Amino acid sequence: MADTYNGYCVKCKEKRDFQGEVSVSDSGRRMAKGPCPVCGTKMNRILGKA
């Protein structure tokens, strides 16, 4: 189930909306991960704990 998130693409140097899935990092943080719709680079967005 992919939702839309807003994140910063390091390669394009712009904020973009991307389709991503929520995963939990090793430190216990929730993050949305997905590809940039323009260049295809991986994008991450750290989400709240709730």
Structure description:
By secondary structure, this protein is mainly beta. Helices cover 0% and strands 58% of the residues. The protein contains no helices and four strands. A hairpin with a 4-residue loop joins strand 1 and strand 2. The mean pLDDT is 90.
Q: What attributes does this structure have?
A:
four-stranded antiparallel beta sheet, 50 residues, DUF5679 domain-containing protein, DUF5679, 4 strands, mainly beta, 58% strand
**Shape label:** globular
Task: Give the termini separation.
Answer: 19 Å
The whole-angstrom Rg is 11 Å
Strand percentage lies at: over 45%
Helix content: under 10%
Order of helices and strands: EEEE
Instruction: Going across the biggest sheet, name each strand in turn.
Output: 1-2-3-4
Output the structural class: mainly beta
The largest sheet is:
4 strands, antiparallel
Please tally the β strands and state the result.
4
Q: Mean of the pLDDT scores?
A: 90
Can you tell me the residue ranges where pLDDT is under 50 for at least 5 consecutive residues? none
Helix run count: 0
Which helices and strands, and how do they pair?
Blueprint: E1 3-9, E2 14-24, E3 30-35, E4 42-46
Antiparallel strand pairs: 1-2, 2-3, 3-4
Short description:
With 50 residues, the chain is an all-beta fold.
